[in-house]
Amino acid sequence: MSTKKTSPKKPATKAKATKAAVAKTKTTKTKRTKKPCCAKPNKFFGGLIIAIVGIAATVALALIVVFTIIGMDSKISYQNNAERFAAEYSTVDKDNPFIYKTAAEAADIIEHGTGVVYLGFASCPWCQAYAGYLNDAAKDAGLDTIYYVDIKSDRDNNTEDYQKLVSLLSTNLQYNDEGQRYIYVPEVVFVVDGRIVANDLETSKDTAGQSEPADYWTDARVEALKSRLANYMKAVIDAAGCKDSCNN
C-alpha cells in the first residue's frame, strides 16, 4: 500500500514579516520627508548678516573718529601751521604768522581778499633766508597772518592753479628765458580788496652775482628789506581795519 507524500505547508509568518517590513519602510520614508513646523535658520546667511552688521558698526565708528579729528584740527590749525612752518624753515621759530594755503586758495585771496601772500618752497635756500626776515618784519608791523603757498609742485607741473596765479600777478612777475611770465621765488604779495598794492621779489632772480644768501644779505640790505616789508604790511593792516570803521 502506497502512501501519498504531502508537501509541508509554508509557514505564514514569512509573508507577514515581509508585509511588516514594507510597512515599516513606508513609515520611515514618511518620517524622513516630513518637514517640521518651524525650519531652522540657515547658518551661512545668519553669519553673513552678523558680518554685515559688524562692518556697518565699524564704518560708523570710523566716521565718528574722522569727524572728531577734523573738528579738533580746525581748533588747533593755527598752532599746527606755525609749528609746521618752523619745522620746514629753520630761520623761523614756532612763534610765527604763517598759514598754509593751496595755490587755488591763494589765487582767491589775491583776486578777492585782503592779506599778505608768500610764495616759496622749503628746499629753496633763498626762500629760507627771506622767510626769516619776512617773519621779523611781521612782528615789527604787528601782522598776525601771512598766507604761505609751497609753489614748487604747481610750478613744476604748470597746473591750472599756477597759471591762474601767473595771470593774477601778471606785470608783477619777471620773465623766464622763454620770454614768459614766471613766478620766481621768494615772492611776497600785498593785497587789499582784491587789488595788489605792493609786491617784493628781492633775490627771487637777481642775487647781484652772489650764489649764497649769507653773502648777499648784508646788514644794510636786511634792514632795508625789513623796513620796506613792514611798511607794506601796515598798509594792509590799516586797510583791513578800516573796512567797517573808516570811510573808504
Structure, explained:
This protein is α/β, with parallel strands linked by helices and 248 residues long. The chain is built from 9 helices and 7 strands. It has a domain of 166 residues: Glutaredoxin. Helix content is 55%, strand content 12%. The strands form 2 sheets. The chain has a 5-stranded mixed beta sheet, with helices on both faces. It has a two-stranded antiparallel ribbon with strand order 4-5. It is elongated, with a radius of gyration of 42 Å. It starts with 12 loop residues before the first helix and ends in a 7-residue tail after the last helix.
Question: Can you describe this structure in just a few lines?
Answer:
This protein has 248 residues and is of the alpha/beta class. It has 9 helices and 7 strands, in the order αααβαβαβααββββαα.
CATH superfamily of the domain at 76-241: Glutaredoxin
Give the CATH topology of the domain at 76-241: Glutaredoxin
Radius of gyration: 42 Å
Per DSSP E runs of 2 or more residues, the count of β-strands stands at: 7
Helical content band:
40-55%
Percentage of residues in strands: 5-15%
Please provide the ordered H/E string of secondary-structure elements: HHHEHEHEHHEEEEHH
Spatial order of the strands forming the largest sheet: 1-3-2-6-7
What's the CATH C level of the domain at 76-241? Alpha Beta
Report the end-to-end length measured between terminal Cα atoms. 159 Å
Supply the CATH architecture of the domain at 76-241.
3-Layer(aba) Sandwich
